Amino acid sequence: MMKLKHFISLFLLLCLLFSCKENQVTKATVKQDLFIDLNKLNNEIVQFQKIVNANKSQKEIVEQFKKSRLAYKKVEWAVEYFIPETARFMNGPALDEMELEENRSFEPHGFQVIEELIYPEYTIESKEDLVREIKIFASNIKQVKNTFEVITISNDHVLDGIQQNVFRVIALGITGFDSPILQSSIPEAGASLISISSYLEKINANSKTLAELKKLTQKAQEYCWANTNFNNFNRAVFITEYLNPISKKLKAFQKEEKIKNIKKSSPLKPTAVTLFDKDAFDVNGFVLSEDYNYTGDKAVLGEKLFYDQKLSKNKDRSCATCHHPEKAFTDGLKTNVSLNGSNLMRNTPTLTYASLQNAQFWDMRQLDLEKQSMDVIQNKDEMHGSLQDIHAQILLDDGYIKLFKKAYPKTAKPEAWQIQNAIASYVRSLNSFDSKFDLYMRGQQNNLTNQEIEGMNLFMGKAKCATCHFTPLFNGTVPPSYSKTEHEVIGIPKDISGKSLSPDTGRYLYNQMPQLVGAFKTPTLRNAAITAPYMHNGVYKTLEEVVAFYNKGGGKGLGYAVDNQTLPFDELKLNVKEEKALVVFMKTLTDKRYQ
């Protein structure tokens, strides 16, 4: 009996050692491929520097730049996934990186800065800056290599990183987000996808599912190379017929290989098969801690509090006074109205999808919905209530006590923080993801008209809307990590006459940095068709007016002195037909309950 036990123990140990050894080989092989591709990228960068130093023509410089970017796209999935801080300075926006908590900013570096130096015009005066940027990029490649030397790259991380990269292609890659001037995004998307199978082969080269995935990625690349024109590229076809099927096949490969989901706190659920699944996003990815997590019972309690006028000092206002359910929780007014009847500075934003952001209010002064609700309730111009008084009233209300007990069974009696959390939970319940657009992206191909599809392609292409309003949330929360919500400076006029710039300095009130003068959060465009008027001051009554503003290049395009404008100030050159299609598409983002 002892010999049998000894034999079994020895057998299990050998199995474990073999398993570990096999896993190490897989990791090493993935790393080897990464180093090979990083060396190829480095070679392209070295060649880039030689061409610049030799004072070659702009055409040669631009062509080598394109080759360098294509080489980067093959390793982008890993750099973005494992070292996002470095990735930001290799291929991030050509805008200062802001650390608002410390009131600091950092000069941008990388491909987008280089792009501005060489295109649409390159002069010898830019050579010194260009060489400096190329050297910084080469230094970042070394840093990436050093990091990959010491980190563990397991199969689950490889699969998760590749899946996120497919989502990155959808939301950023084909929209021109990282190639805003040269617009070389389409062939680069193909290069990014073709590397998928080569890395997954290190997990199981004999997988039938992987063979099918390889065919899909090859077809996707062929589609990109056959349709390289940025403005004419059909993103609706590319996503529904190529990228979504690739996402599904990746999940099938994961299941086949029994690879576990990565455990992490993220708004994008690891179980999401495509970026457009109805339940792809988790509102708990934006909460403070597990105690604040969403539950249905909390939302029921929060709904009662939301409509309760006892939350205001004079018992005559509730949250619903300014957030009307039938208007997607806006009020239809140019700007909100104070308790004494005077106009406040800003427009009331929708609460639908507000939970899928990392900051609240137009000026982003609060980071979560809990603080947002109390900010409004305790504001002397809005509700002038008191959390302490509200808490005291609730402790005397048997109906509320029962609801609190059901929502928070671990506490003996209602606590003040739970009031905030319950209201926030109700707001977190307001995300439907059932618009015409959503249904189309889930396979109902007849759900959008040709004009609506044209508008979608314009939105994600020529009109550049999706470079700030990221698909599919259509707000400023940056995919695929969704860890940051962006602000933009677009130069909104004071009134419809357009004679002067809005005096509201936005985010600058709380972080007095010159880059933030006139900076406002990028709101969601979901339900935009019924949340007029628009912009932080409600200056535009219709979506047509909004599109016209952007078509002219924002505030700078209108002639305002907006030196820190983050919106491209060149005219979009949309014709009347295109402007109409764009508006028609935005109307497809309306939830079913409002249709």
Describe the structure.
The chain is mainly α. The protein folds into three domains: 44-281, A middle domain of Talin 1 (Up-down Bundle), CATH 1.20.1420.20; 284-428, Cytochrome Bc1 Complex, Chain D, domain 2, CATH 1.10.760; 436-594, Cytochrome c-like domain (Cytochrome Bc1 Complex, Chain D, domain 2), CATH 1.10.760. Helices cover 48% and strands 2% of the residues. The chain has helices at 2-53, 58-73, 76-82, 84-91, 111-118, 127-150, 155-171, 185-204, 208-226, 235-256, 296-306, 369-378, 387-394, 398-407, 416-428, 436-441, 450-459, 543-551, 554-557, 576-587, and strands at residues 97-99, 104-106, 487-489, 519-521. The strands form two sheets. A two-stranded antiparallel ribbon has the order 1-2. Strands 3-4 form a two-stranded antiparallel ribbon. Helix 11 (296-306) crosses helix 15. Residues 1-27 have low confidence and may be disordered.
Give a concise summary.
This protein is mainly alpha-helical and 595 residues long. It has helices at 2-53, 58-73, 76-82, 84-91, 111-118, 127-150, 155-171, 185-204, 208-226, 235-256, 296-306, 369-378, 387-394, 398-407, 416-428, 436-441, 450-459, 543-551, 554-557, 576-587, and strands at 97-99, 104-106, 487-489, 519-521. The chain is built from 20 helices and four strands.
Describe the secondary structure blueprint for this structure.
Blueprint: H1 2-53, H2 58-73, H3 76-82, H4 84-91, E1 97-99, E2 104-106, H5 111-118, H6 127-150, H7 155-171, H8 185-204, H9 208-226, H10 235-256, H11 296-306, H12 369-378, H13 387-394, H14 398-407, H15 416-428, H16 436-441, H17 450-459, E3 487-489, E4 519-521, H18 543-551, H19 554-557, H20 576-587
Antiparallel strand pairs: 1-2, 3-4
Helix pairs in contact: 1-2, 1-6, 2-8, 3-4, 3-7, 5-6, 7-8, 7-10, 8-9, 9-10, 11-14, 11-15, 12-15, 17-20, 18-20
